[in-house]
Amino acid sequence: MSSRMDRRDFFQGSAAAAALAAGGLAGCATASTGTSGRTPFQLAGTVIPVVGSDEVFPVRRIYCIGRNYRAHAIEMGSNPDREPPFFFQKPTDAIQFVAPGTVADHPYPSLTKNYHYEAELVAVLGKGGRNIPVASALDLVWGYSLGLDMTRRDLQRAMGDEKKPWEIGKSFDRSAPIGAVHKVAQTGHFTKGSIWLKVNGQTKQNANLSQMIWSVAEQISKLSEANELFPGDIIYSGTPENVGPVVRGDVIEMHIDGLPNLSVKIV
Ligand code: MN
Question: Model confidence at 79, in pLDDT bands (50, 70, 90)?
């Protein structure tokens, strides 16, 4: 008898919770779950410091474009003339903030024997939308930073060979080192300028942002066809050619004209 009561209470309780959740969702036009209530533990949101401000930039999603420079597309074995843009995501908590002027310790991850750097411009969005035209896409950009799309290349390749998801090669803990956010009002948009990366002082990657196959504006437009974009979404805009491995003890320094350099030491 009492167990039947418990069951009924349970079902009534969950029906009420579901109705509450549905009401919350109906009243909320964003991607928020619309639920509220006491949580059993706290989850920290991911934020990135903003240069020249006491604000921090809250990160919603991390999008990354693949093979966005001709020579890199070729070195990865694809045809840059035929391939439409494609994107993957990293988990938001993969962010590792690296303060300007510091060398952050970056842990060599588990499972890989071929850990690669990819130097990239990062656009951060302050507005969202669906089906954004290229001509107005840069209106969504709130600022820029620079970052590393760190990659377990051996695992990425192995999964690709088996037509499985890249996830384990791209979307792991601390796979997204990033510098501070610079407001676009202070930097302007980045359509050209040097992008380079050194390991232990030796130049490995050296290219120009103008060599992107798909511009930041085009990336935003394309992404917004697949997903509604929101403030807090950030986009790693692809890496030039000559990606390569690092081992423990190596120091990576990367540069984009107009931004302070980003440095990490692999530990
Ligand atoms: Mn990349």
Answer: confident
